[in-house]
């Protein structure tokens, strides 16, 4: 299992947005989450919070042998987490979905799998 996490911190609004996605060893989508966070005091804290939230997602779904990747830059395999984090910033909501991704993420998922 691979878990990609990312976050966006909006200093002016005092809010962060977190994104996490899990894929199996074949790159098949297993689940994702985005959520708002008001407790981060910096970009670094927001990214650490995204990892913590991603670990919670993995634990909730009994994903074992999880490799976690997080980076402040868009990198191979982390595009979906980045899109999730930047899409939700400021919306102050949360969503989790399993096994079937949202249609607007399909092209980004394909790009991640092909890189």
UniProtKB/TrEMBL annotation:
Spans through the membrane:
none
Cross-referenced Gene3D superfamilies, in alphabetical order? Ribonuclease H-like superfamily/Ribonuclease H
Question: What superkingdom does the record give?
Answer: Eukaryota
Q: List, in alphabetical order, the Gene Ontology terms for molecular function in this entry.
A: nucleic acid binding; RNA-DNA hybrid ribonuclease activity
Q: Which InterPro entries match?
A: RNase_H-like_dom_plant, RNase_H-like_EbsB-rel, RNaseH-like_sf, RNaseH_domain, RNaseH_sf
Recorded hits in Pfam families, A to Z, give: RVT_3 (PF13456)
RNase H type-1 domain ranges (all copies): 4-73
Q: Under what name is this protein listed?
A: RNase H type-1 domain-containing protein
Q: Which organism encodes this protein?
A: Lithospermum erythrorhizon
């Amino acid at each position: 299992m691979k878990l990609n996490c990312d976050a966006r911190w909006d200093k002016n609004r005092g809010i962060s947005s977190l994104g996490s996605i899990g894929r199996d060893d074949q790159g098949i989508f297993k689940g994702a989450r985005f959520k708002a966070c008001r407790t981060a005091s910096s970009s670094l804290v927001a990214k650490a919070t995204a990892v913590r939230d991603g670990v919670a997602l993995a634990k909730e779904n009994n994903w074992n042998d999880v490799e976690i990747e997080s980076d402040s830059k868009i990198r191979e395999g982390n595009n979906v987490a980045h899109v999730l984090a930047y899409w939700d910033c400021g919306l102050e909501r949360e969503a989790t979905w399993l096994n079937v991704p949202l249609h607007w993420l399909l092209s980004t998922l394909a790009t991640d799998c092909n890189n």
